[in-house]
Amino acid sequence: MDFLDDSLFPETQDKLVITVAPYGPEWEPADFPQDIAVTMEEQIQKAVDCSNAGATVLHVHAREADGKGSKRLSRFNELLAGLRDAVPDMILQVGGSISFSPESEGEKAKWLSDDTRHMLAELSPKPDQVTIAINTSQMNIVELMTEDDYAGSSFARPDVYNAYREMTVPAGPAWVEEHLRRLSAAGIQTHFQLASVPQLETVERLIRHGAYAGPLNLTWVAIGGGFDGPNPCNMMEFIRRVPNGACLTLESVMRNVLPINTMAIAMGLHTRCGIEDTLWGRKGQRMTSVQQIEQLVRIARELGRDVADGKEARRIYKIGTFYKDADETLSKLGYTPNRKAGERGVPRRMAA
């Protein structure tokens, strides 16, 4: 991304899109009973509360009536139907893992099978977005957590801690291409959850080869454990490599969430919060998902940046938009065009 002399002025920036991940699939209800929604009614009301606080993208996971993370797509269908009625302007973004919680004591945390995750393209009502990981990698979500972060929670149990410590993300090339094809055919926008520059490079190649043709909405996920850590040098190199036509959100874990989000607001990027990412405000002080949203809204106002409403967020994300081919996608995103047959030198965009 390019930054001009006026790029840090809030009046030149897009309005802020706040993504909230309030369902916290890694936590057990007893870990934060004041904020973990269990019943279907509570899960829907949680979305309403987050929308009222200022969030416009809802990262969706579902729970069963017993509080366990749901692995049933029928449960997601039920939740999506309720959300469509309750928060019609919110962008509904289903988490591509579906649920990664261990199925029984002593088992590893793991993502569901390739075939099951492909079925996200068949959800009804369909979500606006489904997130996708690129390139199989480690996803050790506890690497950056301190004992203070998870004291008194289920993660203090060695079996749970070790289950998440050993988690990996299955996202090989053949599966990724097929998943992109199915989501696009269903009219569902892909949201890319990326751990590093090499994964961003893979996305560019997918676009250049015609495997994906649409807007580039992506999140830099700085959670360590196989992903980038929340190092500002990593962050700025990732930002530098993102094309100007993309829409970039920054995400981190635990008490890194707020400083990363504050930098995102200042730089004209977008934010993600919620108890899936952090339970904390200041050290030792729990914050609900709604309180985290309200905090980001206050910071944005202090910096003079407007917060998008649901309809504005849909415009910024270009929900419902797809492109006809690789050439159009590269042009819309601001990438250099593909090399033409026999062309030498660095390909350049033609003047309009």
Automatic annotation (TrEMBL):
The keyword Translocase does not apply. Its cofactor is Zn(2+). It comes from the Bacteria. GO terms for molecular function: 3-keto-5-aminohexanoate cleavage activity; metal ion binding. Keywords: Metal-binding, Transferase, Zinc. InterPro entries: Aldolase_TIM (IPR013785), BKACE (IPR008567). PANTHER family: 3-KETO-5-AMINOHEXANOATE CLEAVAGE ENZYME (PTHR37418:SF2), 3-KETO-5-AMINOHEXANOATE CLEAVAGE ENZYME-RELATED (PTHR37418). This is 3-keto-5-aminohexanoate cleavage protein.
